[in-house]
């Protein structure tokens, strides 16, 4: 004689799967939020480094110009 599966077992299995999926979604959401914050921070740091690099380049160019003008002056 074959036994019919109990719908309550199917419902419990489905509920367990849903709980597992909710847990995964929460973990991925948290990870995504942390990654986005890290990306924002890195973008800010990159912008600061680019600015400092540009300032240093400008200073070096100004020094070169001063040296050239000192060299040209008798």
Quick structural overview:
By secondary structure, the chain is an all-alpha fold. Helix content is 89%, strand content 0%. It starts with 6 loop residues before the first helix and ends with a helix.
* Uncertain stretches: none
Number of strands: 0
One letter per element, helices H and strands E, the order comes to H
Cα-based radius of gyration, to the nearest Å? 32 Å
Mean pLDDT across residues: 93
Task: Bin the strand percentage.
Answer: under 5%
Q: First CA to last CA: what distance?
A: 114 Å
Count of helix runs: 1
Structural class: mainly alpha
Q: Shape, please?
A: rod-shaped
Helix content: over 70%
Largest sheet properties: none
Attribute tags:
1 helix, mainly alpha, 74 residues
Task: Explain what the structure shows.
The chain is mainly alpha-helical. The chain has one helix and no strands. The radius of gyration is 32 Å and the shape is rod-shaped.
Write the layout of secondary structure elements.
Layout: H1 7-72
């Amino acid at each position: 004689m074959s036994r019919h599966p109990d719908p309550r077992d199917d419902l419990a299995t489905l509920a367990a799967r849903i709980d597992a999926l909710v847990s995964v979604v929460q973990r991925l959401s948290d990870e995504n939020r942390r990654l986005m914050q890290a990306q924002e921070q890195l973008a800010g740091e990159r912008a600061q480094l680019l600015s400092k690099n540009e300032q240093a380049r400008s200073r070096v160019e100004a020094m070169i110009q001063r040296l050239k003008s000192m060299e040209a002056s008798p």
